[in-house]
Amino acid sequence: MQLTLYRQHYRSLLQLGLPIMVGQLGTIILGFADTLMVGHYGTNELAAASFVNNMFNLVIVFSTGFSYGLTPIVGQLYGQNKPIQIGQTLKNGLAANSVIALLLMLIMTVLYLNIHRLNQPVDLLPLMRPYYLVLLASLIFVLLFNAFKQFAEGITDTQTPMWILLGGNLVNIIGNWLLIFGKWGCPELGLLGAGISTLLSRIIMVITFIIIFLTAKRYRTYKEGFLQERLNKDSFTQLNQLGWPVGLQMGMETASFSLSTIMVGWLGKTALAAHQVMLTVGLFGFMLYYGMAAAVAVRISYFKGQNDWRNIKNTASAGFHLILLLAIMVSVPLFLLRHQIGYLFSSDTDVVLLAAQLVLPFILYQLGDGLQCNFSNALRGIADVKPVMLFAFIAYFVIALPVGYLFGFIFDWGLTGIWLSYPFGLTSAGLMFYARFKSKTKNALTRAKAQ
After folding, report:
1. Residue 246: what are its φ and ψ, rounded to 5°?
2. Cβ atoms within 10 A of the Cβ of 273, count?
3. What transmembrane ranges does the database entry give (predicted)?
4. Cα distance between residue 318 and residue 308, in whole Å
5. Helix H or strand E encompassing 417
């Protein structure tokens, strides 16, 4: 009975989610390649990349969350067959993302001017600074691509963003090889070369999406709405009302990891390098879960446009089942290879041993990570996003960060102690998101029965 109930939802979510996950896997492969290449170039470069990447992960994840405000709007309009309005929403989405990009670049510039005050190893600052500036220049292209990606996924076209992401990542990996190590007559730029390659790939991805949008037959009616309609204050405001809460929720989650990285820096370069290795591995699971959860948001927003709360509830349940399966698929091989995984990124034995100690905390937080991914996106699908900010603040700042400091420094468990805080934060967030979604769907179904 239960299998029959969810079978169609499993099929639909996999059809939507697999291309998103493949695109996310491409991003992970890129992260692996970046860390692997930089790690083999030098431990100092790996440690510097760890710090800078984690600072930028915070704003990139926030900006990605902000762009997710497009999904429930586009999804509901798609369910109501309103392509002209979808095109107008994309135009407003690009404008809103551009404004956010400028704001984030200003904030990150202030951080750059104070990077020496964050108590990081002094000898890493000359490596951090130029790499930081190049990544700063690439932020605007991240947000523009995100807007196009969420538009495409909202109309169930998940394959176009997938192929663009995979192509951009291939360009980035080739650029890394050329510019980090100085191959084929290119200058040997080390960590800076990795940053330049990232910038170029992000520019190419945006240009590619613009060309496809303007020329592809599938996008013709949406292009008409995009070109004919003007920027609309109501639509712009709605995007901000939905985008800010989701961006802040995701940003606070990432901030807990980024602020933890500052604490890790107090433990030294070896701890920073091991931390970066496991964060890179950890992103593998997170991106898979979020890829499937993004499909949950798309399906739920479609059903929301039709006011079909029974299918909204069943879609969220089916999505969580699939994410649990993904969590098992991630955790088992990592546990079996825990003593080998570090060698992919570094030949430093101390880094490898320390990374192996982080595998158990990593496995412990997979359930919570999957739970919070699924139900935060389910709430996004029904456009109930304001409460997630409070839940995220409690989970990541009131619970996770103090627990990390307590375990890491008061109990003197070091890097492993900091990582043991992650299951507390992610699981508490997931439980709060689940309770909120369950309450909303129960009330909606009760009202539907009463009518």
Report:
1. -65, -45
2. 29
3. 12-33, 53-74, 94-115, 130-148, 160-180, 192-214, 242-267, 273-298, 318-337, 349-367, 388-411, 417-437
4. 16
5. helix 414-419
Q: Which two tokens stand for residue 382?
A: 């029904």
Which tokens is 82 given?
A: 């309103």
pTM of the model as a whole: 0.79
In the block, residue with structure tokens 């919070």: 372
Looking up tokens 């990139």 gives 60
Q: Residue 3: its pLDDT value, please? A: 64
DSSP characters over 340-360: TGGGGT---HHHHHHHHHTHH
* Number of Cα atoms under 13 Å in the Cβ half of residue 379: 30
Q: Do residues 139 and 126 make contact, with C-beta atoms less than 8 angstroms apart?
A: no
Q: Which residues lie below 8 Å from residue 393, measured CB to CB, with a gap of 6+? A: 252
Nearest to 388 by CA among 242, 261, 226, 196: 242
Query: What does the pLDDT look like over 329-341, one tens digit per residue?
Result: 999 998 998 888 8
* Among 96, 98, 125, 95, CA closest to 112: 125
Residues 6 or more apart whose Cβ sits within 8 Å of residue 270 = 348, 350, 351, 354
d(CA 159, CA 155): 11
User: How would residue 257 be classed by pLDDT, with cut points 50, 70 and 90?
Assistant: confident
Instruction: Give the mean pLDDT of 158-176.
Output: 87
On the question of pLDDT at 1 being above 60, the answer is: no
Distance CA 411, CA 102 (A): 41
Q: Which two tokens stand for residue 129?
A: 């600074």
First to last CA, the chain: 27
CA distances from 93 to 100, 110, 166, 216, 327 (A): 11, 26, 23, 20, 33
Q: With contact defined as beta carbons under 8 Å apart, do 147 and 64 qualify?
A: no
Q: Which two tokens stand for residue 376?
A: 């935060």
The separation between CA 283 and the C-alpha centre of its own chain, rounded to angstroms, equals 8
The Cα 11–Cα 53 span in angstroms is: 36
Written as six digits, the tokens of 84 are 């002209």
Nearest by Cα to 139 from 170, 100, 172, 176: 100
**What pLDDT, in 10s, does the model give residues 101-156?**
999 999 989 988 887 777 677 777 887 788 889 889 988 998 999 899 989 988 88
The label of the residue with tokens 């760890």 reads: 50
